Amino acid sequence: MVQLMDSEVFMAFTTYAAIVVLKMLLLAPMTSYYRITRGAFSNEEDVAGKSAEEKKKLLRTHPDVERVRRCHQNDLENVVPFVMIGLLYALTGPELSAALLHFRLFAASRIFHTIAYTCALPQPSRGLSFLLGLLVTLSMAYRVLSAALFL
């Protein structure tokens, strides 16, 4: 375990994994902020104590809220696999420069994806950032399979 903690690749992985996980976690309070400021709630208990008329107005969807919520869902579908594959990738002993390239590209793609999603940038900006992150994860998965199965 001590040897792993001394690995520059592993330390780089933990740094970039922490960055993308923190970014993903920040989307939850961002969603709450948008719900409150846009007056758009999805559950009855969120508007408890309000009059029936106020509940009708507040129990609705709003494009800004939905955009952030979908971005968060997309992060769950992409960041979690990156963390799992990235850990295995770091254990294969890749060159530091190659590992940094993978980790930095993934982190940059997810940060840009969040900006593109929340700011409603025109396509293909969001699609390209998603694709870049996916390709990085697939590249690391290939390395893991190559090392483990001698492909």
UniProtKB/TrEMBL annotation:
Q: How does it sit in the membrane?
A: Multi-pass membrane protein
Which GO cellular component does the record give, naming just one?
mitochondrial outer membrane
Q: Name one GO molecular function term.
A: glutathione transferase activity
Keyword Mitochondrion recorded: yes
Locations listed in the record = Endoplasmic reticulum membrane; Mitochondrion outer membrane
Which segments cross the bilayer?
9-28, 82-107, 128-150
Q: What is this protein called?
A: Microsomal glutathione S-transferase 1
| Organism name | Monopterus albus (Swamp eel)
